[in-house]
Amino acid sequence: MGTPLNLLPMFGHTRGNRSAATCHFKCGNACAKDVCNTSTNNYFRDIADAALTRRAALGLGGVAAGAVVVGAHLATAPEAAADFGGNGQGGGKLNFKAIAPVPKNVDALTVPAGYDSHVIIRWGDPIFNDAPEFDAKNQSAAAQAKQFGYNNDYLNITADQGNSRRGILVANHEYTNEELMFDAEWAAANPEEVRRIAIEAHGMAVVEVRRDKAGEPWNYVKSGARNRRITGSTPFTVDGYAAGSDLLKTVADPTGKRVLGTLNNCAGGTTPWGTVLSGEENFNQYFQGTGSATDARYGISSAPSERGWELTDPRFSAQNKGYENEINRFGWVVEIDPQDPTSTPVKHTALGRFKHEGANIRVAEDGRVVAYSGDDERFDYVYKFVSKNKISKDREANKKLLSEGDLYVAQFTGDSPASEIDGSGKLPSDGAFDGSGKWIALTKNGKSQVPGMSIEEVLVYTRLAADKMGATKMDRPEDVEPNPVTGKLYIALTNNTDRGKPGKKAGADEANPRAGATSATANRDGHVIELTETKNDATAVTFNWNILLLCGDPKNPVSQQYFAGYPAEKVSPISCPDNLAFDSKGTLWISTDGQPGTIGYCDALHKVTLTGAERGKVEQFLAVPFGAETCGPLIHDRDNSVFVSVQHPGEGGSFAAPISYFPDYITNPAQAKKGQLSGPRPSVVQVYSPAGANNGKGNK
Ligand code: FEO
Ligand code: CA
Ligand code: CA
Fold it and tell me: Which residues are within 8 A (CB) of 161 and not within 5 positions of it... i.e. 6 or more apart?
């Protein structure tokens, strides 16, 4: 039934940082549409407070970039001129020499000298004994439900307790690229099956992994007892203060406590009790709304959705009687237990509903747990949740910690005079973009703290609640991650070229200091904030903050940059910070989403030193292939391994005319065997040093 799906992206809608296809498929062209946050909330105070913390001492170091040799499916970059060995202060255990940035049309995974790469699992790989072999030209929803999903994003791999040779991999499957997944002619003739396959290609995957010994590459186990696919149709339980609310009831679920599926799962986090949190991000694009004000605040259009899922299942249109609230059942943090494939995953309403990039936990001194989360939209907010109860040895009780607690939104205050924050990105006279801040309570002890809104309304319409309370409008908060070594919080703000534009758009403030319509000032490259909770207490309601990085390409500067005072000419270029990770020493690693469109290089994974003389030094570790984004970085430096989700390789091409052949590089379709594809497949990759710690000198 229904009309054929339009497989081609609507070109001309991008805003410079992503390809047109990424904008279309990933976030429903969010940036081409009006800004969702039209609230008059423009709180930002600039005060002089010289007593606040200052950045660490500056230092010296060396970096130079050379040309990349390409052509093979694995490109090893030549050594940079200076030693990037991780022996400096703050460095982790992975020794490497930074690679040179890779031109954006290079179709190779590029790793440092001395490193190799290994594909653990690809889109379509069967993960059950009875799952059919991948066959792109004969795909079905039933097959996809038993295979690894599309566009892996968040990633974690953990070895089982007491067994270093067995482990478990959990990945998010954020969205689908129908133009790369399907032959256009077949898709046009089978629109209903295409939509059903897409629904099953979303969600999450749990897959057991095995290796010969620690330090060796992991392989996935097709018959793993814990293997599981969670998709756009898997039943979820709803918990928290909004569970059972009228706002969550539909004709198919009069309880308001049972939802089918999770969608647009972007980043996430693994909890100390071994479950995985996953953020439902750009959920708006899957629904046809009614045109209400609350729909508008979430970017939900009353027009038919571009994916057309409402043609397959009536719940995807709020215009269908009885399904007015289905939209409200997405936009949550979900929790799954990868150890128990029979467990019912949960949507936690106490953490609020917005475009959750992900959620990451820090355990406070008193045992309460704090979950940090960003709302990835231009001019949206940073949140934290503080649990009511304390962590214990009771795993089942821990799985309920996110069911009850208080939700806060961040308000940032600068310490420099407003006149010195001119939107150019130039440092104010005190030498830092920095200041203090407050966590403003939206809920407390199970009660709303927002005038005129019930707690159910606060949790379901969290963006509107935060608007009322004076939250600070940020430049697209992506990952918000606490450093497991220091407790400091790092916030990736990926970009926002709309700041300071005419209309009701907020201008520069000290926490978002680049603004304006011209590329000389617009925040196209993003920045990273470092936040320290008062007394380093995760439950504190106040904090200090500073900008660690104003990203960009120092060799071809378009706008002002800042690398915590480290010499800009000595860092790897970096743009559009997205996912954050830490190694065992608390060194920051940043993956990017959008470098091809801004600084002209393939997306990357960078190491950033946080302490000592080299604080602010950015060193590129790898680059992903043509059209791809780097996601889910995972740094196992004790195993000399780095894992990445290579998401949407070849985006910008099509099934018939690929621009990437990652990861198998079968360029002749006639040579593709059963289970293979002559074209790109999103994959999870392990980059490892076969020689172990090689001191950055490569293999002997
Ligand atoms: Fe799915 Fe905010 O990236
Ligand atoms: Ca300042
Ligand atoms: Ca992301």
Answer: none
- pLDDT score, position 696: 41
Q: Where are the alpha helices (DSSP H) in 513-601?
A: 595-598
**Ligand 1 lined by 357 (C-beta under 6 Å):** yes
Question: Rounded CA gap, 95 and 104, in Å?
Answer: 25
Domain that holds residue 228: 5-281+331-688
What pLDDT score does 18 carry?
67
Long-range contact pairs involving 189-193 (C-beta distance under 8 Å, separation at least 24): 189/4, 191/2, 191/3, 191/4, 191/5, 191/308, 191/311, 192/1, 192/2, 192/311, 192/312, 193/140, 193/141
Residues with CB under 5 A from ligand 3 (ion): 266, 578
Q: Does residue 315 register a pLDDT over 90?
A: yes
Please provide the average confidence, as pLDDT, over all residues in the chain. Answer: 89
Whose Cα sits closest to atom 1 in ligand 1? 266
Q: Which atom of ligand 1 is nearest to the CA of 476?
A: 2
Alpha helices per DSSP H over 269-423: 293-297, 395-398
Question: How remote is the CA of residue 102 from the centroid of ligand 3, in Å?
Answer: 21
Q: In ligand 1, which atom is closest to the CA atom of 494? A: 2
Decide if 49 contacts 513 (C-beta within 8 A). Answer: no
The CA 441 to ligand 3 mean position distance, Å, reads: 26
How far does residue 360's CA lie from ligand 2's centre (Å)?
28
Q: What is the CA radius of gyration of the chain?
A: 23
Q: Which ligand has its closest atom nearest to the C-alpha of 434? A: 2
Ligand 1 pocket member 479 (CB < 6 A): no
Structure confidence by residue, pLDDT tens digits, 27-78: 888 877 888 898 887 655 333 222 222 222 222 222 222 222 222 344 443 3
Find out whether the beta carbon of 324 lies less than 6 Å from any atom of ligand 1. Answer: no
Q: Is residue 558 part of a domain?
A: yes
Kindly state whether residue 557 falls inside one of the protein's structural domains. yes
pLDDT per residue as tens digits for the range 419-454: 999 999 999 999 999 999 999 999 999 999 999 999
Question: Tokens 């002209």 sit at which residue?
Answer: 600
Q: Give the CA angle between residues 456, 462, 467 to the nearest 5°.
A: 130
Give the mean model confidence (pLDDT) for residues 162-183.
Answer: 97
d(CA 657, CA 669): 11
Neighbouring residues of 232: CB distance < 8 A, sequence distance ≥ 6: 198, 199, 200, 202, 203, 260, 261, 262, 263
Tokens of 699: 């293999």
Whether residue 289 is contained in a domain is answered as no
Confidence of residue 214 (pLDDT cuts 50, 70, 90): confident
With a CB cutoff of 8 Å and minimum separation 6, the contacts of 176 are 25, 150, 151, 198, 201, 202
Q: Is the CB of 281 under 6 A from ligand 1?
A: yes
Domains in the chain, number: 1
- Is a pLDDT exceeding 90 seen at residue 283? yes
**Rounded Cα gap, residues 663 and 686, in angstroms:** 12
Give a yes or no: residue 317 inside a domain: no
CA 355 to centroid of ligand 1, rounded, Å: 9
How far apart are alpha carbons 26 and 15 in whole angstroms? Answer: 14
Q: Are strands 74-76 and 109-111 parallel, antiparallel or unpaired?
A: parallel
